Amino acid sequence: MHVAHIDDAESFVTKDGSSIREVAGAVSLPSVNQSLAEATVPPGGSTDEHYHVRSEELYYFLSGHGRMRVEDEVREVRPGHCVVIPPGARHKLFNDGDEPLVLLCCCAPMYSHEDTVLTEGT
After folding, report:
1. Could you tell me which of 3, 51, 60, 56 has the C-alpha nearest to residue 33?
2. Which long-range contacts (CB under 8 A, 24 or more apart) does 17-21 make?
């Protein structure tokens, strides 16, 4: 059995510019098919628009509020919302609030920089 605690996870910045603490995946616990991380977008901030070639993502929002754009659809997000992002779908997250926007991000297969394609400004 492998067990990790979020407080022991070191923060790093993903290719889209979000700050994450991975609790399962390539840089933490030895998962094989998926990764789980806490992501934070600062007040007034946003991620860079991108997509993942292979990974499906689930975003589950814990605190803060903002907007999520997947392809051409934009929806407000807040604690308790879960967004499913299919492989190949362009997406971007905006923090419209005055507190950090915090979410859990599950990727299957697990997150990698190599699977992330930035589309901002293209």
Report:
1. 56
2. 17/47, 17/48, 18/47, 18/93, 20/105
CATH assignment of the domain containing 33: 2.60.120.10
Domain that holds residue 71: 6-118
Burial 28-46 (b: 16+ CB within 10 A, else e): beebeebbbbbbbbeeebb
Rg of the chain over all Cα atoms, to the nearest angstrom: 14
Beta bridge partners of 92: 69
Tell me whether residue 68 is in a domain: yes
Residue 1: inside a domain, yes or no?
no
Entry pTM: 0.89
- Mean pLDDT (the chain) is 91
Instruction: Give the count of domains, the chain.
Output: 1
Local structure of 121: helix, strand or coil: coil
pLDDT band at 101 (very low <50, low <70, confident <90, very high): very high
CA-based angle 14:42:99, to the nearest 5? 145
